[in-house]
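Task: complex structure prediction.
Instruction: return structure tokens for all chains below.
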Amino acid sequence: MITLQHYLLLSAALFSLGIFGVLTRKNAVNVLMGIELILNSANINLIAFSRYSSHGLDGQMFAVFVIVVAAAEVAVALAIVLTMYRLLKTVSLDQADTLRR
Amino acid sequence: MIMSNLQSLKFFLPELTLTIGILLVILCDISLKSLRNRLNPVLTVFTLVLAAYYTFQLQDATAASLFHGMLAIDSFAQFFKLFLLLAAVLVVLASLHSAELAPFHQGEFFALLLAVTLGMVLLANSTNLAMLYLSLELVSLTSYIMVGYLKTDRLSNEASLKYILFGAISTGSMLYGLSLIYGMTGSLNLYSIRDAFLSQGVEGVDQFTVLLILVLTMAGFGFKTAAVPFHFWCPDVYAGAPTPVTAFLSVAPKAAGFAVLLRFFFSGMSQNSGGQWAIVGGINWPIVLIGISVLTMTLGNVAALTQNNLKRMLAYSSIAHAGYILMGAVVLTGDGVKSMLIYLFVYLFMNLGAFLVVTIIYDSDKTFEIDDYNGMFKRSPFVAVAMAIFMLSLIGIPPFSGFMGKLYIFGSVIDKGLYWFAAIGALNAAVAAFYYMRVLKAMLIEDGKGITAPLQVSFFNQALLVALLLPNILLIVFWNPIDRWTAASVQLFGGV
Amino acid sequence: MSVFDVLFCVVALVTVGSAATVVLSRSLIYSAFALLFTFFGVAIVYVFLGADFLAATQVLIYVGGILILLLFGVMLTHRLYNLNVKTETFQLIPGMLIAMAVFMSLALAATQTRWKLVPQKMAEPTTEAIGKLFMGEYLLPFEIASILLLVALIGAAMLVRRRSDA
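Output:
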């Protein structure tokens, strides 16, 4: 018998893995993946509660908006990462000192 | 009274104005190649002023819930709308002559500024968890972009990367907490949530879950208001971002964060028994808030003592001020909320003023180091004295308006009987005096490093400085209207 | 143990296993591909919960959009040796301890709390209902989401474009 608790445990596992990824990873894209795990775990929660705890579809509506926000966040984060990549690439090693403030 | 979509539109005019403003600025930016540099700021300021005008018109509207329970119209929302619009106007004006932004095309900057203002206004009004999350993310995303605006500057880019990663983690955790609330109560509307909590009661393990929820949601709110332990992004982001953006971040999203924190806790998670509020489930939340407040104040003040970069110092100082503001939240009464509103209001003028001086000095000297501020008095007495007044106001010395802010906050805490808490606050303010005085000393007493040319300050910036100085000096004289306005603004729809 | 229970266990194991690969793997490309399996697993969990529209949205946007973006990010920056965000990250052991502590507290809350439960109904197709809600009660968030996307679009494009303007 699969109950609400099973879904919540699944999302708890995903959330913890996401937190672990966020804390231990050095690469920015890796941290982004950890963030996506966190957001997905919250989404599972919302949809599970929408099925078991409420009559309407509020949880599912909220989940759609979370997906939208996640997409926008990844887009902006990758834009920033790309900008960083460009800046570091064009900086040669002997110019490194001028950037230290 | 819960209104449907069409009925709500006429109460939505300020936000509609902002939306149309965003679209117009974008259109203008794409099309009118020759005029756009001059037209964009004018359009932005006009939009903000028009939105403020519509907000004034809605002053006497009876409190209601809009768009099927998504937003609330009440005097609390009014206060924050006006506050945020004012902050945005001042920042737009301060950014016009900024040397940092000058090499970059600024059309998007104004569109982003309008968008973040729209997000903050919605955030201060939200009564539905989905709306709360969406508007919080709208504010955050635009802030991330604005911080990274100086594309060729490595510090700005690093700052925006740290900001977005930290922010996404915090808001993701908050989202998990919000989903747990949904599970316990079956609803996303703040009022239904409170009713559900009150009717079914919270005991046993449920208390642990509610505590968990509070910790997780505080991740999001603490991030926005830069409270410990969610403040780590603050110094790097403030130092790397363009100064007008830093100035904006230090007042506006912080205020919006406090607004949503108050609305969430008072309308959604607390019960009112005889004029005294308590968090549902009997969790001793004031103790936790006291802890956060003390940590925030102390860390901010202590860390600021060792900073040489003025922007980083102001970053830590704004963390400390968030700690003072949280003191008002501990009290959990109408007076406490009122003192927070007053503190935010005076904080707006003193902090923006300090950052404007930083911008002015950077424009001519290209430096943010406090040591480079030596001897500023000889080069421009006006700027040095203005900065002195802002610093004194930030310390909280009468007769400047910063004193009134601290007076109300400490007063409301003392009224509640928490004498030792107020003593910690006063001690912190005394410690803070050291680093503010350091700037004063550099500007007024120390000898300059040989640069004797007078500081070039454009007439526009001078006028803006005066505009920011006047509230700091004169508000204490015209204090009654402020007092009455904030007292009236504590009315939360369905919350008080 | 019905077929459904077995299926759920398999899907849950795949999802958690691939999520673990995402956060533990040394290679960025392996992490990205493991993330693909995680997203699909989550979409299947949505189907188990009767959220058909959301499962389709999950696949379309997460796999078809976000994952592709992440792969672009990986491919375009892989030559950079250290895209270091934080100079001090947690070592593995403290990180694992914290993650375990988080999982324990969440699991405790998940299993012991009295969640609000309503009588179960047969799952119905949700697309029509969601569409009506978007145009009805959730109209305002819908519009604000569109502004959010517009702003993200403008911001991301502005940050990345090469043309320098004054």
